[in-house]
Amino acid sequence: MALVRWDPFREMVSLRNAMDRLLEESFVRPLRGWPERMGGGLAISVDMYETDDDVVISAELPGLKPEDVDISITGNTLTLKGEFQTEKEGERGNVHFQERRYGEFQRSVPLPSGVNTEDAEAELEDGVLKVMLPKAKEAKPKQIAIKAKS
């Protein structure tokens, strides 16, 4: 049995490598394997923004048609459901690698107060779904004129 000289720097390097891997998995690529790892479906990217008259939810749904997407509102939650279909086996030939994901998705978004869900409209153009929810009259800002007194 040979004696090995203890080198504290060798242990620090392995600790640093472990910390680098941990930070890379947590911050550089945090969504790799998620939400599949969490037991959910595919993740879709969603933006929500507000105009003077509407609250708009915008979602990336490349390759889907309007009939492939189900939009529902329950209480103050908007839910998008659908499925990305895979191509037929015979159409593809030998697949070398596959980065696009296929399967069902469901995404729920909490809505802000003061939206009129009864008059919601949706449109799908170039793979981007936009759901427009008009603001309720009470939620729109009201301008008050200031009178000058002499």
Describe this structure in words.
With 150 residues, the protein is α+β, with helices and mostly antiparallel strands. It folds into two domains: 10-39; 41-86 and 101-138, Immunoglobulin-like, CATH 2.60.40.790. Helices cover 17% and strands 31% of the residues. The protein has two helices and seven strands, in the order αββββαβββ. A hairpin with a 2-residue loop joins β6 (121-125) and β7. The longest helix has 21 residues, at 8-28.
Number of domains: 2
Oligomer type: single chain
Derived structural class? alpha+beta
CATH fold description of the largest domain? Immunoglobulin-like
Task: Give a short account of the largest sheet.
Answer: 4 strands, antiparallel
Q: Give the DSSP E fraction (strand runs of 2 or more residues).
A: 25-35%
Shape: flat
Average pLDDT confidence is: 81
Q: How do the strands line up in the largest sheet?
A: 1-2-7-6
First CA to last CA: what distance?
A: 102 Å
DSSP summary: helix tally? 2
Task: Look at the structure and give the CATH class of the largest domain.
Answer: Mainly Beta
What is the number of E strands?
7
Low-confidence stretches: 32-39
Give the ordered list of helices and strands: HEEEEHEEE
Radius of gyration: 25 Å
CATH architecture annotation name of the largest domain: Sandwich
Helix content: 10-25%
